[in-house]
């Protein structure tokens, strides 16, 4: 991180595959409307269960992006 | 929660009546500009005092909403 | 609390009415199978939203009960 | 909060009625000896149970008051 | 989560393969005696090391299940 | 800890003698109904006071035990 | 804080000078797009080091602003 | 705890002997000026070291006492 | 810290200048009525904003002082 | 864990592949200079993003090793 | 603590006797290689159980020592 | 942070001047024996008081450095 100003948003992504895939799902979706995503931090990992099997993983994460001059 | 991607915002609502009313005040106001609010979690409960009486309750909460394709 | 040994369980109750009612709902249901419930502590307060209105409150709580000789 | 110096005390109030009433009970009692109570923050919410019913709510809170020149 | 009452248990699962497999191991084992497991939350991720290699992952998780009428 | 699945319970023990004795009291009582207790972790240490003397210590602890095949 | 509804955003500011200047940098930049910023709270203070010297301070903060009718 | 209002104070006691003795030292000293001390909770346990030996234990604790009508 | 018994109070100081000055403001004011203040610990740093400028810093701190025989 | 004395170090490992690989990377590197690494605990999981893709995962972990007589 | 620079290490000591003895065991062992140990803080207290008896206590602690000029 | 492995150490620096100077004091001293210090995070800010004046600030921080092949 250099001398930019960053804004941090909180996201929840999910995946039937893995924790990493749930993170990537959230990042990819947020990237559609937020430019300049730079880093993330996992806040919570959880999931849903059906018939004794993990149905999907859900990851709550904070993601930071640079605030450019004039934009949001 | 299913396989959508969610975004979480942090809000503060207040009420002279009750903690529940302070929550509802924040949710109702946020609903004017955020579509698809789905859940909330109370982060902090506090309030102001005047002459030995609680003047109003303030509740800090996180609220999650689904990020739809192409929106917000 | 006196010199008994206690066991603590974690419960989630919900109510469309209030936080207090969600607590009471969890306590009443647990009381059907756990004898000697003595105290509770609220761990988390959250809820679901529909159309900008709180649909129900959910309260996560820990509840303690005395372990009697030879039981449970 | 403006540029006063505040002191914060920790209190426990209880009520058979509601969480809000337990807060108000603590604030009202503290107001007898502490001038200038201004705000509170709920630290913990708990209670006692008898026969599967909540007997009373107990709320631990921090309450802040202005330190006036020369007093308390 | 709807208006059921839930009970939450704390479990530790392990796996030589991955964090996800350790979660699944705990869920599958708990499912043998607990009906209606619905969700989990990861509380802690740790593991054991031998000769500079991770021997197995251990995941501490909370898992919630619905309390049905009359059962535990 | 090896590759078993563990379940964790939360207990409160007390003693007029010492913190260690309060821990031992909780473990010994839980051992009457839970097979295979393996470890504990202290969550909170507190106590009651009478006439300026500690009347007893109370220790809240988590205790883990192995879930054997087929049992609870 | 009065009876407005507030929204809270999380920001990271940095400065080669001081912690206070890093806070001010984040506030000033956020003020370009967020009307009615009212308060902040420092969440984390960190920084980067080069050749045994602090190169810059980075402060993560939460900042609250009033949600006016009809706006974001 | 019944329906009194309590006030909580934070104390540090120390002892060359044991953690329990450090708790008792703080409680006994506070009892000289605070009537009706009822319970304590250990917040932190630490100590000083000299020549590879623990010189004394220091325990930070919160202690609660009933606020009687008219007194502090 | 030696073998005295300490009491800890929680204070909020503010300053338009700096975090250090807000700390000093609280300490100086508390020193008017509390003898033997020895140390402090910062619990929270926050502040108010006006027109995109930090108007003042507010620091919540815990401060410890020795309880002398027979006093306070 | 038996009756050895352990020392705990804090490490950060990274990987473009997975969280598990980031853990393994840190453990393997630490093993070059620290004998007898026995366990780890994940403290934080984060990562960097480029063009809407996770570029690499970073895992902060604590790792414990036995202090042998006379060494390290 | 005066104006030295300190370094803090994290240790785990164990004892079949008591929590205090587990602390002392860790301090004594660390003192063989670390000069100038000054203070410790208990981070976690846990232990192992065999046949319903505490087999040994384990204490995780942070210990601080002065960094002298030129040494580690 | 790129794909290096980092080690994190915990330090305490102090200064009679400011929080920033206390951070710099710890970093500068650690830099004498630790190569490649890259970042720090403030864990705790505290200080000592004499005669109602802050005598010095003490900052506890974590500092990270790259583990180079074959070193430290």
Task: Walk me through what this model shows.
With 72 residues, chain A is α+β, with helices and mostly antiparallel strands. The first copy, chain A, has one domain: Dodecin subunit-like. A three-stranded antiparallel sheet of chain A has the order 1-3-2. In chain A, strand 2 and strand 3 form a beta hairpin. The longest helix of chain A has 12 residues. The first copy, chain A, is elongated and about 50 Å long. The model of chain A has no long low-confidence stretch (mean pLDDT 92). Chains C and D meet through helix 1 and strand 2 of C and strand 2 and strand 3 of D. Chains A, B, C, D, E, F, G, H, I, J, K, L: InterPro entries: Dodecin, Dodecin-like, Dodecin-like_sf, Dodecin_bact. Chains A, B, C, D, E, F, G, H, I, J, K, L: It comes from Alsobacter soli. Chains A, B, C, D, E, F, G, H, I, J, K, L: This is Dodecin flavoprotein. Chains A, B, C, D, E, F, G, H, I, J, K, L: It holds the Pfam family Dodecin.
- How can the largest sheet of chain A be summarized? 3 strands, antiparallel
Q: In the CATH classification, which architecture of chain A applies?
A: 2-Layer Sandwich
Multimerization state: homododecamer
* Chain pair with largest interface: A-B, 18 and 16 residues
In the sheet with the most strands of chain A, the strands line up as 1-3-2
Q: What's the level 1 CATH class of chain A? A: Alpha Beta
Low-confidence stretches of chain A: none
Write down how many β-strands of chain A occur, each being a DSSP E stretch of 2 or more residues: 3
CATH fold group of chain A? Dodecin subunit-like
- Overall mean pLDDT of chain A stands at 92
Return the domain count of chain A. 1
First-last Cα distance of chain A: 19 Å
Helix run count of chain A: 1
| Alpha-beta content class of chain A | alpha+beta
Gyration radius over CA of chain A: 14 Å
What order do the SSEs of chain A take from the amino end to the carboxyl end, as H and E? EHEE
């Amino acid at each position: 991180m250099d001398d930019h100003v960053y804004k941090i948003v909180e996201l929840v992504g999910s995946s039937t595959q893995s924790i990493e895939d749930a993170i990537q799902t959230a990042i990819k979706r947020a990237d559609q409307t937020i430019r300049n995503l730079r880093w993330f931090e996992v806040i919570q990992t959880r999931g849903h269960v059906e018939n004794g099997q993990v149905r999907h993983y859900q990851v709550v994460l904070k993601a930071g992006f640079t605030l450019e001059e004039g934009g949001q």
